[in-house]
Amino acid sequence: MEFPTCRLNVLGRGIIGGNIHLKLLKVPITKMNLRFNVYRRLSGYHPFLFNISTEFCRFMKNPNPLQVLYYFHSAFLPYSNVNHTCPYTDDVFVRNCTLNDEMFKRVPLPKGVQENGSESFLFTSK
């Protein structure tokens, strides 16, 4: 994986959009393990409330609204091309992604400073 683009752009007054271009080097991606974390800032960033590991291709085949990852994925879905099941053969784009409080009203996040992190492990088949 390479990240040719990963930046924040000003879209308007007080509106900032995120742009990510993820270049897949070995295609097709047939299996993807994803780990998603939320960190809270106390005296440094510490893991908080969510530490989710899932097989992303299975999640995309059967999205479950009872999983927290469903709400984070649905927030990014209108801005990305990650809207189908495996295999992934093209680059992944997130364009002009703006987040607001309404997107996460069902997710129990406390007030304060949080940081989201994710790791992915990609597998290909030949």
Briefly say what this structure is.
With 126 residues, the chain is mainly beta. 12% of the residues lie in helices and 48% in strands.
Write a concise keyword list for the protein shown above.
mainly beta; globular; GL21300; 48% strand; 2 helices; 126 residues; three-stranded antiparallel sheet; DUF1091
How is this structure best described in words?
With 126 residues, the chain is mostly beta strands. The chain has one domain (2-124). 12% of the residues lie in helices and 48% in strands. It is built from 2 helices and 6 strands. The protein has helices at residues 56-61, 68-76; strands spanning 2-12, 15-23, 29-41, 45-55, 92-97, 114-124. It has a 3-stranded antiparallel β-sheet with strand order 1-2-5, with no helix packed on it. The longest helix has 9 residues, at 68-76. It is globular, with a radius of gyration of 15 Å.
